[in-house]
Amino acid sequence: MEFSPFNNIVKRCLQGMGMEEKGNPEEASKLFLQGWNEATNDFEKLLAAHYVARHQKTVSDKLKWLETALEYALKINDDTVKSAFPALYLNIAKCYEDLGDTGKSKENSELATLFKENPSDKGPFYHGTKADLQVGDLLTAGGNSNYKSNLKMNHIYFTALVNGAGLAAELAKGNGNPRVYAVEPTGSFENDPNVTDKKFPGNPTRSYRSQYPLKIVGEITDWVRLTPEELQNWQERLANVKGEIIN
Predict the structure, then answer these.
(1) In what helix (H) or strand (E) does residue 54 lie, and over which residues does it extend?
(2) What is the DSSP string of 195-241?
(3) Which of the listed residues 115, 149, 166 is the one where a domain comes to its end?
(4) Looking at residue 170, which CATH number applies to its domain?
(5) Which of 89, 115, 141 represents a domain boundary (last residue)?
(6) Domain range spanning residue 224?
(7) Same-domain check for residues 32 and 129
(8) According to the model, what pLDDT value does residue 3 have?
(9) How large is the C-alpha radius of gyration of the chain?
(10) Side-chain half-sphere of 89: how many Cα atoms within 13 Å?
């Protein structure tokens, strides 16, 4: 199950988050519930239920929707979803704590700890950029951020989703053509904390970062390009993003 910014339910959730940022929770709640009603597979149901949950008026209703999200997550056996388990179990544990059920709160807290581990993703991995590079070149940390030009990055970033790398390439600074390269990490890596459990539960974009270089092993040309309108929308969305980058 591949996470995609082009997915209709993902778009619906992004619309809902936009309403939250504008201080309109009622409209956000309607959009998330619309996403739930439109969802056609387990992954879409997981995403929508996660957002419907946080707009519930009572703890018991919030718990019901969180457990619904978990139910669908447990049906999906891939790395797109595994990273969502710690946050889901922690949120469920908090609900049980608020409801006075310490036994179930402890049980879910322990499950959250059990699932919180180093990324198990085996790739293949990709990096998007506007730089013209060759097989064998090394991508290293220390470059300027694409989103804050005065910030030197302590890590090099990559993803296991080719279209995610394509999106990064389109949004990268520079005048060259967007390029997507197949890469191999040369050392340990971690979930990108800038996206993990931020907008979406877990790390569905399978985004990672490393302090070790990435070795380019090929170039990918078969990836989904943004339309000019989509590119402009993404650029505007990034320009309005508030908060610090975890570096």
Answers:
(1) none
(2) TBTTTBSS-TT-EEEESS-EEEEEEE---PPPPHHHHHHHHHHHHT-
(3) 115
(4) 3.20.170.40
(5) 115
(6) 125-239
(7) no
(8) 76
(9) 19
(10) 18
